[in-house]
Hints:
The protein is mainly alpha-helical. It contains 14 helices and 11 strands. Helix 9 (235-251) runs antiparallel to helix 10.
Amino acid sequence: MNKKKETKVTKVVCSQCGAEFGIAEKEFTAVTTVIGKDSNLGTVYPAVVGQGASSRTTKSSQERIDALRNAGVDVSHLFAIQGANGGEYIASNKNGIFTFLDDNDPLFDLITSQGTVPNRRLFRRWVMAQMFHMMSETAYRSKELLGVTEMIHQFGYEYQWKMLMDELYAQMKMEGRDLENFTDRNRWFNAGVVVSMAEDYIVQLQKYVDALKVRKCKTIPYKRIRNRNIFVSDLQDKLYKPFCSATTRIRKAKNAAQLFDAAKKFNDMRIKMSHDTPQSKSWVDAYKGSGAYFTMQNLIRFHNCIAINDTGKRLNKCQSLAFISAKGEEYKDGEGWRLLAVLKKMLEDNNIDIKKKMATWRKNK
Length: 365
């Protein structure tokens, strides 16, 4: 008599905490392989991101998820799990892939010890305050607005490089970990903008060198460039060519880390320019686009503002965020300045008075 083969009930169990995850009787659940309770696999121990580390919290896992939700973070793929040993964990099923979130996940870096999320870091709220300041500043002893372009120029030439390096470093840390925010920021400050800035710098450097006094050593002309003497005949090879090669490395960067490294090498080579040297037009445009975009994003997320689209339809919160994202994509290549008009319209549509808003912020400090 043939002995009936025993069918094993499939379970998905965490190898760290012993938590058993519910799966449908005949349905499929994505872990790494497609399984169901009828798959006769026995007990499955899925791989866990960051072995040896858990998403234990001083606050409950659900409280941490709620804090992120209140800040406007998309938490639809996050859920709290309690293990067999009583420990609490935060898991994710983003893109159909089940993982535990490690305590070192950058998402948790945004949560303070009080269990709240500093929105300023999540959505760059300081950008909105800065944009409002630039849009409302007037000339000395005058009521005439200076304008955003003039305010940006007042930062000086070197500011653009400092700001750029800080931004590229942030993107390098973000790529692969926070795709949504990386995409939002890389839309404005990317390899194309860095190449344009590098090429513009070479032009400005040539103008600077051309204006220097020609000296002579045994009748051979040379120029003194920041305590360095270079014969005029050697300028191309010794001064300009290394910058051209560095620009090529920037152009060939394939990811955020390579871009940061190439931009840093170029920046470290640079001779500092005077404060009033004209800034790169590509950087100025990206700065305007980025500032307007993140300001509108914050107005929608945290100040109950909405957008009215090009046909005059009032949009809800989600639609408004999608609308400004589409506008960002439309204007990202050299037309970031157009987003300032979109921002001004949003302020008018929502009856936002910039100066009153800033006065409220100062009062609440």
